[in-house]
UniProtKB/TrEMBL annotation:
Entry function: Kinesin family member that is involved in spindle formation and the movements of chromosomes during mitosis and meiosis. Binds to microtubules and to DNA. Plays a role in congression of laterally attached chromosomes in NDC80-depleted cells.
Binding, ATP: 92-99
Keywords attached to this entry: ATP-binding, Isopeptide bond, Motor protein, Nucleotide-binding
Record field: compositional bias (Basic and acidic residues): 563-581
GO CC annotation terms, alphabetical: kinesin complex; microtubule
Limits of the Kinesin motor domain: 2-335
Protein name per UniProt: Kinesin-like protein KIF22
Species: Cladonia borealis
Residues annotated as transmembrane: none
One of the Pfam families matching this protein, by short name: Kinesin
One GO BP annotation of this record: microtubule-based movement
């Protein structure tokens, strides 16, 4: 079954009243229902024609929160109770109503999908309990986290408890889990509202020019249901996701911090678009792992039901954003999702070997290293190893208990259960919901072979093993924000030294490199715009993450010199202005008498001032120098692209679009289709890994030299840009 995509067009906001509404809904004339399923929007390049997109449901500005919920979400609740996972996510550019749809506001009528979903779940749980006379019970637990600047933070924890690196992700079967995430049992709607409101205070939001309360993060609420009937426990998860909105930074006028956030938001949404594109092209490689959001969302990999709510703004100022969101949604609806319910698990009689776990329904456990070493694990992964074929895939950690773990609970798959619904697309269900006691790793006893006497004879492999385990334990403890749990054996200086090195490497990989690259990207963006001081600040921030990068140091040094030089020029200009002003004053009094011309004034022969002119009104105006050098490198001459190194507003706009790497915008350039847009982005990204820097195109020649572009395309892009921008500007 495909992802169910519905579109919701929000009403005009106060400041948009009287503006041009360009998005409309329509019913499909071939359908029996008169419920709208079509969205219409003019072609920005030719306003006389409309683009039409069809979705499973379409709602205009009159749609209420209740309608959206009743029509789209209510039907999923029964599936949830039958063991299917449900994912609902809101997608759209900033300010289009995602948070309004998902969270809504506090009044009953304006409550969004999330509180209504919880309300529906509790109502059904109570009914089940009542109808079964208490024989069937439902336990609900919640987790709530945000992905901010590609780091995962627990929203049930106070912000001051956050670590720089955020919470790590681990693959667990076919799912991605967040290690160390708090799970809160929640018995009723009132408790939920309290928890949810508190957690939302922790969410990263800020005022931007485009939205007074803009979400700066992707927020994921996990609602876990455990339905117990006798000794059978059926578990399912509803994930309600409020994605951050893509932003066009030429419109946001974001400051430094907002720009960093924005770059991270745009990057993750771009990765999401790449994943959707790869899935629809049936590519072997889908780049889920390029961002945490796509890893967690795992579109097309997650089983169960998925609903995407596409939020749209109706007015012209969102034209290009709306169009690219519609294109994205159009591709998303074709993604097939396996409709498989989760395996039920069974309680078995107590077993002496299983450690007793007490406490409430959710019991987090410290991470436990596996008995097998990673070295062994890798050999077990070999698909053609006949001896190991039946072994389970070895995981580095037993992550955490994700539900009530009663001492006498043992799980086993429900083989041959006639009651189990299955899908023709069914594949072996993941074993990630409950770990069977057989597969649950036994707590490893600390090796005692390392002591001062035996130390000199430790083999290299044993050292590797120890380091691996020590790192594992440290990471586990760090993830849970508590001291290392297993007693550590004494370790030699050599082991400690290598351990420190490894930890350092992990730290840099975990939170350094990506953060550093973001700063580099920001620096480049500022530099291209000529905002040298901001660029320098960003380069300096990046330096902390790439301390030994000579290229970066040189760049910083050059930029510093340039800024210094500019400052001096500025001072000289100011001084010259003052002199000139006094001279002008003098001249105006004498001009009548001598008919003097300014040209002959020696003070203005200095090169620095050749571009300063008196305007006709007598005011002082500085015009930056324009270089007229002809560009011929790479076979592209200035005449071929219509201009040389001259940076007109149109050129700058074109370069900004390309450098934004926003596939939605690049695709809309004249003569650029999806493939070419991707090729451009790929060409920009090529080689960045090695150079620790983000490549930016700084002029048309460079753009023409990108693989697959060429002079003609550049010319087309430029010409088309002017027309389409004119068409959408208000
Ligand atoms: N259906 C609607 N009815 C009334 N007001 C709406 C509706 N949708 C959105 N709004 C209003 O529009 C504004 C922007 O909405 P919202 O904050 O939900 O956007 P968003 O897509 O979540 O933005 P961001 O990505 O920046 O977080 C808010 O003031 C919200 O109340």
């Amino acid at each position: 079954m495909g992802i169910r995509v519905i579109a919701r067009i929000r009403p005009q906001q106060q400041h948009e009243l009287g503006k041009d509404v360009i998005v409309s809904t329509a019913s499909n004339t071939e359908s029996a229902s008169d419920q709208p399923t079509l969205v219409k929007i003019p072609n920005p390049k030719n306003e006389s024609e409309d683009f039409t997109f069809q979705f499973s449901g379409v709602y205009d500005h009159t749609a209420t929160q209740q309608q959206i919920f009743d029509n789209e979400v209510t039907p999923t609740i029964k599936h949830l109770f039958n063991g299917f996972d449900v994912t609902i996510f809101a997608y759209g550019s900033t300010g289009t109503g995602k948070t309004h749809t998902m969270r809504g506001s506090k009044t009953l009528a304006e409550r969004g999908v999330i509180p209504r979903l919880l309300s529906g779940i509790y109502r059904r749980a109570r009914k089940i309990d009542k109808d079964s006379g208490g024989k069937k019970t439902v336990e609900i637990t919640l987790s709530y986290y945000e992905i901010y600047n590609d780091k995962v933070y627990d929203l049930f924890e106070a912000p001051e408890k956050r670590t720089l690196a955020g919470l790590p992700l681990r693959d667990n079967g076919s799912k991605t889990v967040v290690v160390g995430l708090t799970e809160r049992p929640c018995e009723n709607l009132k408790d939920f509202e309290k928890l949810y409101d508190q957690a939302n205070v922790n969410r990263s939001t800020s005022a931007t020019k485009l939205n007074a309360s803009s979400s700066r993060s992707h927020a994921i609420l996990g609602i876990k249901l455990a339905v117990t009937t006798g000794d059978e426990v059926r578990t399912s998860i509803a994930s309600a996701i409020d994605l951050a909105g893509s932003e066009d930074n030429r419109r946001t006028q974001n400051g430094k911090e907002r720009m960093v956030e924005s770059a991270s938001i745009n990057k993750s949404l771009f990765t999401l678009a790449k994943c959707v594109e790869a899935i629809s092209q049936k590519d072997a490689r889908v780049p889920y792992r390029e961002s945490k959001m796509t890893r967690i969302l795992s579109l097309g990999q997650n089983n169960g039901l998925t609903i995407m709510i596409l939020n749209l703004a109706p007015v012209r100022s969102f034209h290009l954003d709306t169009l690219s969101s519609l294109n994205f949604a159009n591709r998303t609806k074709r993604i097939e999702v396996r409709e498989i319910e989760n395996e039920p698990v069974f309680k078995l009689p107590p077993r002496a070997a299983v450690p007793s776990i007490s406490g409430p329904s959710i019991q987090r456990q410290p991470l436990r290293p596996l008995a097998s070493t990673v070295h062994n694990a890798s050999s077990m992964h070999a698909p053609n190893n006949p001896l190991k074929q039946n072994d389970k895939q070895i995981k580095a950690f037993s992550v955490y208990s994700d539900r009530a773990r009663h001492p006498n609970i043992e799980t086993r798959p429900c083989q041959g259960d006639p009651g189990r619904r299955s899908s023709p697309l069914k594949r072996p269900a993941p074993s990630d919901t409950f770990m069977t006691s057989a597969s649950r790793p036994v707590k490893r006893r600390s090796p005692n072979f390392i002591n001062s006497k035996t130390q000199p004879t430790i083999s290299k492999a044993a050292i590797e093993d120890m380091i691996e385990r020590k790192v594992t334990d440290i990471l586990a403890a760090r993830a849970l924000d508590q001291p290392s749990v297993a007693p550590q054996p004494e370790i030699s200086d050599e082991v400690q030294r290598r351990l420190d090195l490894l930890e350092k490497r992990i730290d840099v990989q975990d939170d350094g490199r990506e953060q550093g690259l973001t700063f580099l990207l920001m620096a480049k963006q500022h530099a291209v715009r000529g905002e040298d001081a901001s660029a320098l600040r960003m380069y300096n921030l990046a330096k902390d993450f790439f301390p030994d990068n000579k290229k970066l140091e040189t760049k910083i040094e050059k930029l510093r010199e340039k800024i210094q030089h500019n400052k001096e020029e500025e001072r000289r200009k100011e001084a010259a202005t003052e002199t000139k002003s006094s001279k002008t004053l003098l001249l105006t009094t004498t001009r009548k008498d001598c008919g003097r011309k300014d040209d002959g004034d020696d003070d203005y022969q200095d090169e620095a001032f050749t571009d300063q002119h008196y305007e006709s009104d007598g005011g002082f105006h500085y015009k930056p120098k324009i270089r007229n050098k002809r560009a011929t490198a790479g076979g592209i001459s200035s005449t071929e692209v219509g201009m040389g190194d001259v940076e007109t507003p149109r050129t700058r706009q074109l370069l900004d679009i390309v450098n934004s790497r926003d596939i939605k915008q690049i695709r809309l350039l004249k003569g650029v289709g999806a493939k070419k847009a991707e090729a451009i982005i790929e060409a920009l990204c090529a080689g960045e890994e090695d150079e620790d820097e983000v490549r930016m195109v700084t002029n048309l020649r460079e753009l023409g030299q990108l693989r697959g572009v060429g002079a003609k395309t550049v010319e087309n892009m430029r010409l088309g840009l002017q027309n389409s921008m004119d068409a959408v500007s208000e």
